[in-house]
Write a structure and sequence with these properties.
- By secondary structure, the protein is mainly alpha-helical.
- The chain is built from 5 helices and 4 strands; from the N terminus they run αβααβαββα.
- The protein has one domain (2-101): Winged helix-like DNA-binding domain superfamily/Winged helix DNA-binding domain (Arc Repressor Mutant, subunit A).
- The longest helix is centred in the middle third of the chain and has 13 residues, at 38-50.
- α2 (25-32) packs across α3 (38-50).
- The protein has a two-stranded parallel ribbon. The protein has a two-stranded antiparallel ribbon with strand order 3-4.
- It is globular.
- Helix content is 39%, strand content 7%.
- It binds a DNA duplex through α2, α3 and β2.
DNA sequence: GGTGTGACCAGCT
DNA sequence: AAGCTGGCCACAC
């Protein structure tokens, strides 16, 4: 049943991210069992725009809580605005209290 | 169809 | 302590 590749799994996990929460690439990759594929997660975000799915890529940042991929949203302020819109504070392209908003990948979908 | 690339992470020097 | 390299896997040319 889990024929979905690591790439597809990434999308599923990201869509599981609740409102006002964020997670890191490594957390997702590690959760899937491939910590080394952290960059694949980020890259999946890039494809998320062209993908037919709605992926809240703005809720995904690096382990430092830094908005590294903000450039890929078409504008380097979209990602920050989206996060702030959810109640997340951002300073210097970094999430304030990142751990407080950090959400652990839990695909408890059943 | 092979090679390169990519929004990362962690270990080694 | 800081800088560089490897690793992972799917997509584009």
């Amino acid at each position: 049943m889990e024929e979905q590749t690591f790439f597809k799994k990434v999308y599923k996990v990201i869509r599981q991210i609740p409102y006002g929460k964020v997670t890191s690439y490594g957390a997702i990759a590690s959760y899937l069992g491939t910590k080394g594929s952290a960059r694949m997660v980020g890259w999946a975000m890039n494809k998320s725009f062209t993908s037919s799915e709605n992926i809240p890529a703005h809720r995904v940042v690096n382990r430092n809580g830094m908005l590294t991929g903000k450039h890929h949203f078409g504008s380097p302020n979209i990602m920050q605005q989206l996060l702030e819109s959810e109640g997340i504070k951002i300073v210097d392209d970094k999430i304030v209290d990142f751990q407080k908003f950090f959400w652990e990948p839990t695909t408890k979908n059943g």
